[in-house]
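Hey, I'm writing a tutorial for new members on how sequence and structure tokens pair up, and I'd like a real worked example in the thread rather than a made-up one. If someone can provide the structure for the chain below, I'll link this post from the tutorial.
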Amino acid sequence: MSESRGKEASGAALLVGDRIDVVKAPVRGRDFLGLAEAAVIVDGITGALCSNVPFALIGHTRMVTNGGDHVAGNNQPVMRDGLVAVHNGIIVNEARIWASLPNTERRLEVDTEAFLALVASRLEAGDLLNAAAQSMGDLDGANSIALMSARHDSIVLSTANGSMFIWQSGDGDLVAFASEKAILEEVVRSALLPFFSATWKSLDQVNPGEIVELRLAGHEPFRGKWTDAALPTGVPRPTARALVDHPVVSCPARPTPMSINTSRCGEIARTLNIDWDAIRALKRCTRCVLPETFPFIRFDSSGVCNFCRGHKPYPYKGRDQLERELADAKRGNGAPDVLFPISGGRDSCYGLHVVVREMGAKPVAFTYDWGMVTDLARRNISRMCGALGIEHILISADIRQKREFIRKNVAAWLRKPHLGTVPLFMAGDKQFFYYANMLKQEMGLARTLFSMNPLERTDFKVGFCGIDESYHKERHYDPKFVNKLRLGAFYGKEFLRNFAFFNSSLLDSAFAYFSYYLIPKDFTSMYDYLPWHEQEVEEVLLRQYDWETSPDTQSTWRIGDGTAAFYNYIYLRVAGFSENDTFRSNQIRQGLISREAAMSRIYVDNVPRDQSIAWYFDTIGLDALEALKTINKMSTRYGPADQR
């Protein structure tokens, strides 16, 4: 039921009698119970039910963040010092926690271990609940945990951001918990647990900063806050349970993934080839910074481009209007008001700050992770949702499969490269819109509030397909219907020209086209109401949230998108400009930056990002140097005639 949370690994831990059995493997949740080793979990539950013996079960489906899934110890549940836990989120201050435990040896890569080490360091008195509460208070980020101990007869649950729900059966025989309300509702609705009472009490959310203790027998769950002065003191068992890890040998071992080689970054940096002199010599609009190589650009006698002449200032609807609409969406039962998609980029992170801290809304944050969301972006999402106490719903694609699709499409593109087909590299993220619609309906929310920045309009990408989207439009992310058809025809022609595009990614790409171009976009965009100011955005994120930036660029834009560094290099190398030129030009037209400042910024922002390009190719499993050499051989749209 929870496989949407992650498809890279899964596992469970069963506490019954005098033992805790743990089984985990780098397989999807749907495949986990088919493993021979998982029989110890199924048989243990069956035996406990037949014997009327109390038991506790925790399980997890994992999307890998910290710690590769090829190492069994990194997968959930994580074990250390007689403790077992499953964990959602990212502990963003992990390094500081380990520094505070100088005499404790780190054994794994996964950040969950830092939490277990903290709890273990506080367990001398035998008080699991207080040790867990104090340790949760020391974590930064949106973290939710379920914790077992070999020395205690209970499970401890806690969350920093409300991503935890509990449902208790009417007769008290069963307490079930999950990271999402919909998962529990489906369990009950589909009668997956028919051997328990059909009558259920109301579902409760564990609030940010709360801790819950579920005791094995004869006691109501305890709920309190991390900061409570006197949490109940548990009594440890006289003898610790056996903690038994069952290594999985019935599925193939996960190969060690490629890791980023810093010396490789140097080779990549030396291979990146930008003719800055030729780019500086390009004719540019005298009002903005768009060059003559920009699709469908035309200059008048004064050197002003048609995009500047046709520009109309964005008609912002105003903060008051947005606040009224958010107030209308509020529900009286304390449930979330709106769905707020968050990518980990600066626009969505700042937007979440505004609607929560400044407008008092109660959104539920949503992320679609398709495999190119960087770890930096994931950490920033964790920072924001943890600091704001916002429930975060993650839908994870089959990331291995998605990355394989990207690899195939990039390899196909390199056979017959064309600027118009570059967006195929990003097709896999467009299901974002499909799942946003699905969640909105599933949760009964009145609206979805996106944070799309109109200054980031990049219609030149379809311009390279021969489609003119330069006209003024109310919604910058919604092309004309006829242009959607033309785009489909263009890709059909390119696929016939390059049969390598007919690979296993084809259905996924078709789903992406459907999700982005054909599903009605019934959502609100907050930057249609509020003006966007770069300095204000950066100051809030960096000062108030310790927001993380990328070491290989001075820009804070696109640093959470693992594809951006590569495709912007292609555009810059072949066409002499990138997304940065369009963004700065839009800022000029809105009166947010001078042309002189924009010219200076584009040469800083456009410096190719060697570390991010290395990460991209290592992640999808292609040779970066060979790919860059192919791109460097492409004819450019500028410079000497023999290079065009």
